[in-house]
Amino acid sequence: MKNKKVVVAGATGLVGSAALRHFGASGDCEVVALSRRKPRDLHGASHVQADLTDAAQCARAAPQLLGATHLVYAALYEVPNLVDGWRDESQIRINDRMLRNLMAVLEPAAPALAHVALLQGTKAYGVQVRPLKVPAREGRSEMYEQPNFYWAAQENFLRELQHGKAWHWSILRPVLIVGLAMGGAMDLIPPLGVYAAMLREQGRPLDYPGGAARVSQAVDVDLLARAIAWAGEADAARNEAFNVTNGDVFTWENVWPAIADALDMKPGEAVPLSLAQSWPQWIAPWEALRRKHGLISPGLEAFVGLSFQYADYSMRHGQATQGPPSIVSTVKINQAGFTEMMDTEDMFRKWFRSARASRLLP
Fold this sequence. Notes:
The chain has helices at 14-26, 55-61, 82-85, 89-109, 151-162, 189-201, 221-231, 252-262, 275-278, 283-293, 300-304, 307-314, 331-336, 344-357, and strands at residues 4-9, 29-35, 46-49, 70-73, 115-119, 168-174, 176-178, 206-208, 218-220, 240-244, 267-270. By secondary structure, the chain is of the alpha/beta class. The strands form three sheets. A seven-stranded parallel β-sheet has the order 3-2-1-4-5-6-10, sandwiched between helices. A two-stranded parallel ribbon has the order 7-9. It has a two-stranded parallel sheet with strand order 8-11. Helix 2 (55-61) packs parallel to helix 4 and helix 4 runs parallel beside helix 5. The chain is globular, with a radius of gyration of 20 Å.
């Protein structure tokens, strides 16, 4: 008997898609995918169409949220100028409104609500404006003085809303998330896969387009989905925030050969290139590759979204000197009971091979 009903808000995104996949495979719960567009694969979930910025649309969705026990809140609004938008007041207001609109209809519809999982990230530590304290720790390194929709717009709202109620929340702070969704703002597999396809078609090796190295961390999106599911059941996760990573560290240069291998290419040289500036030149060649290889992926903009910008940011395009390390501590989540790890090279191999096997990349 299915005793859980999980609502995944933002079901078409990177994290939302992984949550659908995880809970759909678990077999012990009913899953509702809540999003503006229907996900490419529902993994057995029912789809409820709603734009969370619109309170009326949320209200119309309420009957299909009846009896929900768990909410995975993976919805996110980003502005077209991605990185600059992280400090934009309108972006903060819109993300604020989205969560408030949903909770206003979910709570009355879900008297048995048990858990709300909220996604943040290293912007909680001000990574977009300053070097991280190494390692950044929950409860010690937050940058509350930097305007960010994480704080008053979402976390403080959720804390106040939950006060005195039976349900609890958990906040997950992943680092660089790697998985596969289409049209996302922060999904590295499509932009890097398209860039690689352009080079391979010219008979070239996989040159590295980024800037100087920085030691960083990543997290496999499926591992993150399992952490979200764990947080929904673990007593130690009640009303707590946790960093989530694969458990190792990497630089782009040291994983580049693994990425090249997964794409059946040879690693090349460091050849700086802005993917965000170059992609318009690839629109027609990408259409030709789609026809040549029978790809099911859509046109370039629909496939990659804002992620060309995110690839430049992640690989430090234009940065000539080695960057400060971007490292968070995962001691807290490990001690609380979630101890999964994954080799980051294996993670990149997994997702590029998956994209090729499913005919999203040539």
